[in-house]
Fold each of these.
Amino acid sequence: MSPAKILLVEDEPNVAQFIQLELRHEGYEVTVAADGEQALALFHQTDWSLILLDWMLPKLDGLEVCRRIRRTSEVPIILLTARDYIGDKIAGLDTGADDYITKPFEIEELLARVRTNIRRNHREMNRSSTDVLQVEDLVIDIRKRQVTRAEERIELTQREFELLHFLMQHQGEVISRERLLSAVWGYDFAGETNVVDVYIRYLRNKVDRKHIPKLIHTIRGVGYVIRSG
Ligand code: CA
């Protein structure tokens, strides 16, 4: 298998060089972009395995770069942010980033996140099942990545889709926030399970709001379950 190609978008030369060296040491091919416009130009040149994207950038900021990439691509994106507010993190995830890392970070943590996100992406691309899961009139087609309720198409972000997929694979089973985090976000987001609540809210808006019966249920103090009643 050819080495995974990573686009590193970071305007601070020292930080960029440090991360680049570490990633190369792990066997990745790394290209550096120093601002948002250059990032988009490079993004369109080839297929990337992963994008490491600094939030605060000249020309276009990381969130805007992320939004534009998401119009055409589901490449894993990890946001690097010096801001340490959960609101910002959720804003970042909401633009379609798969993950974020708060600066300053331990390089081991960054490498672990890179591995996890690339692995998850490979798993998704290799998944060739024709699985269709259903609860009441909610149907999820894993292979086509399509969701319908009462035969009406529902558009979900990648993360919303993965969350719904996991719940539907375990329909009728109450799943804790921690388990959803590790299954859907892929690692231990210790203490930040409110990200799950936010995404459950997004899902409910899209899946349940206009329909009866409600399918996504909160089990107070435990977690969530998807079931018909
Ligand atoms: Ca920066």
Amino acid sequence: MTDTHIVTIDRHIIDEERRKPEASGAFSNILTDMALAAKVISRQVNMAGLVDILGRAGHRNVQGEPVQKLDVFAQDVIYRAMDHTGHLCCMVSEEVEDFIPIPDKFPAGSYVLLFDPLDGSSNIDVNVSIGTIFSIQRKVSDQERGSLDDCLQPGRRQLAAGYVVYGSSTMLVYSTGAGVHGFTLDPSIGEFILSHEDIRIPRSPTRYYSVNEAYYSRWNRGTQRLLDHLKGTDGSADGGGFSARYIGSLVADFHRTLLRGGLFMYPSDPKQPEGKLRLLYEASPLAFLAEQAGGRASSGEENILDIQPEALHQRTPLFIGSGELVDLAEHYLAGPTDDG
Ligand code: AHG
Ligand code: MN
Ligand code: MN
């Protein structure tokens, strides 16, 4: 019998809390509640082909994007798992324009939850991995039920961040600042079991770069030169040697990057001058995880975690993964960006 002890995510969260004498337990409860929401969403995702939640919900979200029914379901599950617990003062969701105060009928707490309830919406109906991304900040204002100031905090201040990837298995990956740990859902017992302790992003040489190359012609010259280098078509001696992987679900592309190394990119282009991905509940939480795993994340100009947010749904270009490759991206983006 091998000595493999079984650690559930609830046990892991409690053990992490014990390492922080100042911890009140409220913070741990938010993580536990997120794990519960993940189980509920996972069950629905895995039945998506069987129940009437495929297809579009018929309206558009604040981003002007068509909302898929699973987006709405995931949003509702997370909100209802969190609204009554007394740990949060407010929430921010990709699917809701303004921040979401905790209703007066429920007690308010000292934390803010920011989340993308369902990431990879374009992949829902084609049975490709999708995910949920979350970030936890501490309240900084004196507003009992939250304020914009509580929501617009730099990623460097996050207390925790994580994601759920609903793929061939459902995994929850999180960090509270003491490394990155992955848990795989065992649906037969309904528990997330520790399967990837202290994940470290492999350093170069690594095999993958990940970007939607359909937009190549729109990118500025620096971005194009970066891709030419990664593809080995720029004539440099140290270019090339990569495979391309692009799933089109940020969570799935990031999860692979975290485990296998490489560079995920979503650059800006004239049609998306700030990029497509949102800072508060996509780039920032994943940047926190990347840094905790020994990698890093940049907008191409600055560390994602140092950006002072100005608006809830603001977007940012994103270059994330193995540190040396993010450095390389910044190097090329700092170079000549016009045709010169
Ligand atoms: P969301 O479904 O939350 O709107 O996110 C979709 C994002 C992200 O998951 C992915 O990396 C990106 O959209 C793919 O965009 P393109 O289709 O332009 O490549
Ligand atoms: Mn998303
Ligand atoms: Mn989404």
